[in-house]
Specification:
Bound molecules: iron/sulfur cluster
Subcellular location: Cytoplasm
Strand content: 5-15%
Radius of gyration: 19 Å
Distance between the termini: 52 Å
Function: Could be involved in the maturation of NapA, the catalytic subunit of the periplasmic nitrate reductase, before its export into the periplasm.
CATH topology of the largest domain: Alpha-Beta Plaits
Main location: cytoplasm
CATH class of the largest domain: Alpha Beta
Family: Belongs to the NapF family.
Keywords: 4Fe-4S, Cytoplasm, Iron, Iron-sulfur, Metal-binding, Repeat
Helix content: 10-25%
Structural class: alpha+beta
Order of helices and strands: HHHEEHEHEEE
CATH architecture of the largest domain: 2-Layer Sandwich
Strand order of the largest sheet: 1-2
């Protein structure tokens, strides 16, 4: 029996593109996926070289490579209607620390705090206290991600009044 490959493709699950690591100032994941041409201009212009080809070939920020200094060059170079003005807040992302933080094993480590210029990471008294994040100070720059020896830090969207 003949089998229509086109018909079969109708039933294939659509590939879902991960949008967890989008660039700063992106209006929305939909706006980004609908308009990004994957031209690569933003990758070339990023002075920190933290923009990589991510899921589906779309540009993503990779904090394992460094931090975002919010220069705005990626948003400025892009010709597509993807970004807000860089005078707006770049994103509603903050650092978040999971249970693999060495403090949970009573091991002394201050790597994240030492890399945080905003001084958003603090430790309670006690040699191995788990770091606390001050969300008012955290810019979501990602500078604390790469230095963490156990990959305990992620920069994730937080719920705000604006993005609820
Ligand atoms: S410059 Fe704009 S269109 Fe080009 S890859 Fe980057 S986000 Fe996509
Ligand atoms: S704002 Fe600047 S440092 Fe941050 S991702 Fe864009 S080009 Fe790179
Ligand atoms: S993301 Fe940046 S500002 Fe926030 S805690 Fe990490 S280093 Fe500090």
């Amino acid at each position: 029996m003949d089998f229509d490959a086109n018909k079969r493709s109708l039933f294939r699950p659509k590939k879902v593109i991960t949008t967890d690591n989008l660039l700063p100032w992106v209006i929305s994941p939909k706006q980004f996926l609908d308009n990004c041409t994957q031209c690569g201009d933003c990758l070339a212009v990023c002075p920190e070289e933290i923009i990589v080809k991510g899921d589906g070939g779309f540009p993503n920020v990779d904090f394992d490579l460094g931090e975002c200094d919010f220069c705005g060059k990626c948003a400025e170079i892009c010709k597509e209607p993807i970004f807000t003005a860089i005078t707006e807040s770049p994103w509603h992302k903050k650092a978040s620390i999971n249970n693999t933080c060495l403090a949970n094993q009573n091991i002394y480590c201050r790597s994240c705090a030492e890399s945080c210029e905003a001084q958003a990471l603090t430790f309670q008294i006690g040699i191995s206290a788990v770091p606390q994040i001050d969300n008012d100070l955290c810019t979501g720059c990602g500078a604390c991600v790469a230095p963490c020896p156990t990959k305990a830090i992620e920069v994730k969207p937080i719920e705000t009044k604006e993005n609820k």
